[in-house]
Write a structure and sequence with these properties.
34% of the residues lie in helices and 19% in strands. The protein has helices spanning 12-23, 66-73, 108-116, 123-138, 156-160, 163-168, 174-179, 184-187, 196-207, 218-230, 273-277, 287-294, 329-332, 386-406, 422-429, 446-449, 471-498, and strands at residues 4-8, 27-31, 43-46, 49-52, 82-84, 91-95, 100-104, 211-213, 234-236, 241-247, 250-256, 261-262, 266-269, 301-309, 320-324, 344-348, 361-368, 414-420, 460-462.
Length: 500
């Protein structure tokens, strides 16, 4: 029998780690503070309608897709209910300035041809840009399930060049530069800061296989839990970790909020690093390490608006929509005042069935800084007061005003509206200041903003969206890295690569 592994946090990272290690024979136990596991995969019901909390568009499940291979290795890929997004426009950017819509098409050649129809004089530049994006992705080993052969910082171009600088090196057309950065809202891109490998991986990832969960994203979480349980592990919900007891350079046990103690040979923290530091004695870490990790800049948070439609009133949109007032708002959505918020948004109508004609619901994400709701930070859900509730209603109305720019008659088709703020996200995900994309990698100082999966504590590993890359792509790949420290990364990559 192999070693025991205790995982703190039952989000995507914790569940993927748990499933991999359980399949490899480890005795796995996952501690999750909520009533149901899933993290960003988690869904909730309001008035009989199921809403996602984090995952809205996915990819990697097409033939030979990296996630299809990973989840085929785990035995669950064919059990997922997935439908392709619109191949001729899986993402669509609407810019109110000029009233233009730009469609991002699936497939390398289709993408170039479609985008070139808006910028015919830039076709060669667009080709060169996408060609280089694919070259970069082909040379990221883990993304291609290859064993890394060099230090993460060895490729200086993709580490020290920002997305904005990279785009500008291919075209001087300012409008095209902004259009090529249409998906900033998906990864919290920052001008002059976000390294090109982040933008390249996410862009190519979706071009090659944009798709959506049918029904809800919770299905993936449930299947991962099944893998853990079928291999002798367990996922304990309503079991939040209160203290990580470290003695003589190793974790000895984890004490839960109920006072129960759990022991293991290895421990994996799948929660935000700042949240982890709150439940252990930081004196066990070198001051320089602790301060560096704890002070890495976090991404912005969001104001999320949840909409239900009157039956058969609003069309189902088989794409993720991005809306901006002006072209440069794709970079400046976090630079707002109360008078001009929101500067941009992302909206989706998640599918309920395989062949939806009308949308049942819409989820709208708008970037919001934590400072906007900081005055209520010491309150709890349901007890934030009338002023807070009025704030939410006011900002819901601002979101609807923006949606009306793209869909003039949308208000008449809405049945219900409610929302969540950075405080909701902070409390639900247990992340500092409600950061929706974890910590921010900075191409100007990658060594300082990088968090390795190994810690200074001998038997404590890290995983989750703060390590390397966030989202449905980054978190499972990081889980492979984390599990590779125990199982052997080469062995795991061979397992994943060998499945059809």
């Amino acid at each position: 029998m192999k070693n025991k592994v205790l995982i703190i946090g039952g989000g995507i990272g914790g569940l993927v780690c748990g499933a991999i290690l359980a399949k490899e024979g480890y005795r796995v136990r996952v501690l999750e503070k909520h009533t149901i596991a899933g993290g960003g995969l988690h869904t909730f019901r309001r008035n009989g309608v199921e809403f996602e909390t984090g995952i809205h568009l996915i990819s990697g499940f097409q033939q030979n897709g990296v996630l299809r291979k990973l989840f085929s290795y785990l035995g669950i890929a064919d059990k997922l209910q997935i439908k392709p997004a619109d191949a001729n426009g899986f993402d669509q950017l609407y810019v109110a300035e000029g009233g233009a819509t730009y469609k991002m098409a699936c497939g390398k050649d289709n993408f170039v041809q479609t985008l070139s129809s808006y910028f015919p004089e830039e076709e060669e530049n667009i080709k060169k840009y996408i060609h280089r994006i694919y070259e970069i992705c082909d040379n990221v080993p883990l993304y291609n399930l290859r064993l890394p052969t060099a230090d993460i910082f060895s490729n200086m171009e993709i580490m020290e060049t920002s997305v904005s600088e990279f785009i500008a090196s291919f075209t001087r057309n300012a409008k095209l530069q902004n259009v090529l950065a249409w998906n900033n809202a998906m990864y919290g891109g920052r001008k002059g800061k976000t390294p090109i490998y982040v933008g390249a991986l996410i862009t190519q990832f979706y071009i090659e296989g944009a798709s959506r969960f049918i029904g809800s994203s919770q299905q993936l979480a449930d299947l991962l839990v099944q893998v853990i349980e079928q291999n002798g592990g367990e996922v304990l919900t309503k079991t939040g970790a209160k203290f990580i007891d470290i003695q003589e350079g190793n974790v000895q046990k984890v004490i839960t909020e109920s006072g129960r103690e759990y022991y293991a040979d290895y421990y994996i923290s799948a929660i935000h690093t700042s949240s982890m530091f709150k439940i252990l004695d930081v004196s066990h870490f070198k001051k320089a390490y602790y301060h560096r990790i704890d002070n890495i800049q976090n991404s912005n948070s969001a104001f999320v608006t949840f909409i239900t439609f009157k039956p058969n009133s609003f069309p189902y949109l088989n794409y993720a929509g991005f809306c901006a007032h002006k072209y440069d708002d794709v970079w400046n959505s976090a630079e707002y005042t109360p008078d001009n918020w929101p500067r941009g948004c992302m909206y989706v109508t998640p599918p309920v069935s395989e062949n939806d004609t009308f949308a049942q619901k819409m989820i709208v994400n708008t970037i919001m800084k934590y400072e906007t709701v900081k005055k209520w930070e010491n309150t709890t859900t349901g007890k934030r007061g009338n002023e807070y509730n009025e704030f939410k209603k006011n900002y819901e109305n601002k979101v609807l005003n923006m949606l009306e720019v793209a869909f003039p008659d949308i208000r008449a088709k809405i049945e219900t509206v409610f929302s969540a703020t950075p405080l909701t996200i902070r409390d639900f995900y247990n992340v500092k200041e409600g950061a929706i994309y974890g910590t921010v990698p900075d191409c100007n100082n990658m060594a300082e903003s990088h968090i390795p999966v190994r810690t200074k504590i001998g038997n404590l590993l890290l995983t989750g969206q703060n390590i390397n890359l966030h989202g449905i792509l980054g978190v499972p790949l990081t889980a492979l890295l984390t599990c590779g420290e125990l199982v052997g990364l080469e062995k795991l990559l061979k397992h994943c690569s060998s499945v059809s």
